[in-house]
């Protein structure tokens, strides 16, 4: 008599398996997506806040931010800036109700080359969170990984106990400078590096393990583990789930709702490709002369030499900084409509290409 086969237990989704090896972070300002995928942490940026702020479900947050700006008074520009800061914090506060960990809130990208400006704005955001009853231990302040941004992060961490997430990071030299500065976390971009290689090289497709962005994050991770840096590596800016799965084992990965959804539907076995133990044995030497790499950048318009911070292109870095700044300015335009009106106006909206995310 044949024995009935044992019913096989359904394999966990790729997303659930990933959570066993890596801290999964949601890269979104959409509360519904956070509720659905249950990440530990969440990251936001001006693009994400702008997209969410135009949804009817979040209009109360916009109204509250406008009311706050008006209440503080001052010039029209001051009211708009205060309302913008408040809006970012209101979104962050709502997100924190839905996650057990931390939320990343970004400093205005227009301050990317202004060390003191970044420090002041970061402290202002932390004060706003404090007013909302939220301690700085639950906040990561996002700063651009320019030399000035890294030095601002160093001061914020050492003198004010403010945890920083260094973004717009494309290279090994930037990553080492961040670790030396003692910042809490870095967000090296994966997809943007792939984009550059596809746009500027003959090869148009890459296996995940050979993806230039994946290899960049892998090298950074291994260097940190080999030399005992405490800074967290959080891979960011993914183009596909293959890149994510190829970085299983990385400290953190911040992932868009679209890719979280794809991972939740995949049922393939994930094996960690990164580990502290393996990273400590990788043959890497310490990098010196970091600041020099930041001081000898090609002028804008001469970036197609892969000279930015030894591995990426200056033009693209400035493009992304200006893009984040643009999204912040559009948010200010939305707020401006209400600040200058005696009552909320019908808000204008922006085409999808305006809201394109990194």
What is the topological layout?
Blueprint: H1 14-21, E1 23-27, H2 31-37, E2 41-43, H3 46-53, H4 59-72, H5 76-96, E3 103-106, H6 115-131, E4 139-144, H7 147-160, E5 164-169, H8 172-181, E6 185-188, H9 191-200, H10 212-226, E7 232-235, H11 241-245, E8 252-255, H12 257-265, H13 276-279, H14 290-295, H15 314-339
Parallel strand pairs: 1-2, 1-8, 2-3, 3-4, 4-5, 5-6, 6-7, 7-8
Helix pairs in contact: 3-15, 4-5, 4-15, 5-6, 5-15, 6-7, 7-8, 8-10
Question: What's the gist of this structure?
Answer:
The protein is an alpha/beta fold.
Describe the structure.
It is an enzyme of class 2 (transferase). The chain has 358 residues and is α/β, with parallel strands linked by helices. Helices cover 49% and strands 10% of the residues. It has 15 helices and eight strands. It has helices spanning 14-21, 31-37, 46-53, 59-72, 76-96, 115-131, 147-160, 172-181, 191-200, 212-226, 241-245, 257-265, 276-279, 290-295, 314-339; strands at 23-27, 41-43, 103-106, 139-144, 164-169, 185-188, 232-235, 252-255. It has an eight-stranded parallel barrel, surrounded by nine helices. It is globular and about 55 Å long. The model is unreliable at 1-8, 296-313 and 342-358 (pLDDT under 50).
